Amino acid sequence: MIIVKIGGGSTINIEGVIKDIAEIKEEVIIIHGANALRDELAEKLGRPKKVVTSVSGYSSVFSDESAIDVMMMAYAGLRNKRIVELCQRSGINAVGLTGLDGRLVQGKRNAGIRVREGGKTRILHDFSGKPQSINTGLLKLLLGNDYVPVISVPIADENGVAINSENDDIVGVLQEAMAADTIVQLIEAPGFLDDPDDESTLVREMSGDELARREEQVQGRMKRKMLALKKLLVKTGCQVIIADGRRENPLMDALNHIGTVIK
Amino acid sequence: MIIVKIGGGSTINIEGVIKDIAEIKEEVIIIHGANALRDELAEKLGRPKKVVTSVSGYSSVFSDESAIDVMMMAYAGLRNKRIVELCQRSGINAVGLTGLDGRLVQGKRNAGIRVREGGKTRILHDFSGKPQSINTGLLKLLLGNDYVPVISVPIADENGVAINSENDDIVGVLQEAMAADTIVQLIEAPGFLDDPDDESTLVREMSGDELARREEQVQGRMKRKMLALKKLLVKTGCQVIIADGRRENPLMDALNHIGTVIK
Questions:
Q1: Which of A69, A80, A82 sits opposite B78 (nearest CB)?
Q2: Do A100 and B85 touch (CB under 8 A)?
Q3: Mutate which of B32, B81, B159 to disrupt the A interface (most A C-beta within 10 Å)?
Q4: Residue B221: what pLDDT?
Q5: For chain A, which end, N or C, has fewer CB atoms within 10 Å of the first or last residue's CB respectively?
Q6: Are B77 and A74 inside 8 Å of each other by CB?
Q7: Which residue of B has its CA nearest to A67?
Q8: Least-confidence region, from A171-180, B120-129, B220-229, B232-241
């Protein structure tokens, strides 16, 4: 089983990804972002995204009720359904689901984000949390009947409330629950870059140890992604390929190891 | 089986409907609108809804690609997922689906809408069509595993392309495919009114013959609804209750025949 994570950047060649999925024989689960779409919509609606940085240095989106509304529109609405449509047009019998649907992805609400404000530490509460378990029964029901799940945030908290969560964390929980052997992450870069500003510095292979070392180097959202990857590799030892989602055949090229292969 | 159609008006008490659904024992399929939300979003995004009236007198939304985008955000995104969330919070294991997902609702694209413009008849092409069949396999798979389907537009055309369709028509095809014995339509009025401007003129019971007669009287969207209802009754003889979605217990009251009962 391959988990294909389609990044939420605006230049990802989604049509190309779906065409590639139509060609491969292995079981596939799609999980997608929509952050460019979300940011654009939030801006148009006059509700710009709020980003906060915790005292431990991880930055995250602050998700109030209005931010969850925008997320539902951009992720679960427009992006998810346009991907399902592309699948259906390519002969892939896709079913789009958020973590709320059948409590597919059940999480734990964050206690709060500790931030520094005006020299003081404050705790901010929002609708966000960490994924903890997958309704594998529902996924297997669909996969067993030849449906391809297309998954998006929000996920459900302990009480069924819609919360935001990092896609990289969801991928980790999903991989463990479904025992996928390959994860392909399609992003707006050729893979993991030694120098983020120089695409020629692609790192073609990375061991788990190197990943841990590099986590120290990076900042912001990439730090969070590296942390999620590290957890994934420690737990399972599956193959992760970070590859360029902007190419003509993003998934085929990724499966041919054009990108960063982490084992 | 009961099909509960939740209207898309802004004053419908959705929380009340979901609480009622949590109380009843019968199998339920939810189908919902979101027109107030869609109109509000379209306005905010500077893409106001276009309504055209065909030469035969039926008015309908003109759905270009941008209108389908807005529909996906409002119906499949925000409204569908907030309803699924309310269900999950009330212990109902809901799964939200559009007609695209697993080609749940397969339709036929409209050839075009014949309109009069500047004294001439023109044909306008858009992304809209009529539902024709239901993927009963997917619905039964979910219902058989105790999931409650929450259905929304868009639906899929012959090629898997997202198209808009009238919810009343979808309800008709759904009823026939699933052999539901009761349809409850929750709207922003006490039921069918003899005088649309006077809520005291509620028609408590209506026969199929009377429905046909009244179809002649009404205009615009209500005409379309009456036509869909007529088709439904002619084909199946199931019970239709049109009731007030703004009440504290909208579904319970409807099932107790507070509204218009059509047999």
A1: A69
A2: yes
A3: B81
A4: 67
A5: C
A6: yes
A7: B78
A8: B220-229
On the 0-12 / 13-18 / 19+ scale of CB atoms within 10 A, B54 is: middle
What does the alpha-carbon distance between residue B22 and residue A134 come to, in Å, rounded to a whole number? 24
**Above 80 in pLDDT, residue B216?**
no
In this structure, what token pair is assigned to residue A83? 């991907």
Which of B146, B153, B182 lies closest to B167 in space, CA to CA?
Answer: B153
Give me the mean pLDDT over the A14-23 stretch: 98
| Token duo for residue A75 | 């992720």
Say how far apart CA B47 and CA B38 lie, in whole Å.
Answer: 10
Nearest to A85 among B44, B78, B160 (CB): B160
Nearest residue of chain A to residue B66 (CA atoms): A78
Q: Who among B77, B88, B159 is closest to A77 (CB)?
A: B77
Which amino acid appears at position B169 of this protein?
D
* Percent of chain A's residues with pLDDT above 70: 98
- Residue A122 · residue A115 · CB < 8 Å: yes
A141 to B141: CB separation less than 8 angstroms, yes or no = yes
Chain A positions touching B103 (Cβ under 8 A) are: 88, 93
pLDDT band of A104, cuts 50, 70, 90: very high
Residue type at A81? K
Contact A78 B101 (CB under 8 A): no
**CA distance linking residue B250 with residue B253, whole number of Å:** 5
**pLDDT tens digits for range B88-100:** 999 999 999 999 9
Calpha distance A163→B242 (Å, rounded) = 35
Q: Across the interface, do B78 and A89 touch by the CB < 8 Å criterion?
A: no
Kindly state the tokens that stand for B124. Answer: 């306008």
Work out the minimum CA distance from B259 to partner chain A, whole angstroms: 32
Q: How far apart are CA B190 and CA B199, in angstroms?
A: 7
Read off the pLDDT of each residue in B151-169 and give the average, rounded to a whole number.
97
pTM score above 0.90: yes
How many residues comprise chain A?
A: 263
ipTM over 0.85: yes
**Mean predicted confidence (pLDDT) in B135-150:** 98
CA distance B262 to B239: 6
Alpha-carbon distance of A250 to A237, in angstroms, equals 23
What letter would DSSP give residue B161? -
Question: What gap in Å lies between CA B206 and CA B193, rounded to an integer?
Answer: 11
Smallest Cα distance from B89 to chain A, Å: 5
Average pLDDT, chain B: 93
Question: Nearest CB to A101: which of B72, B95, B138?
Answer: B95
pLDDT reading at A179 higher than 70: yes
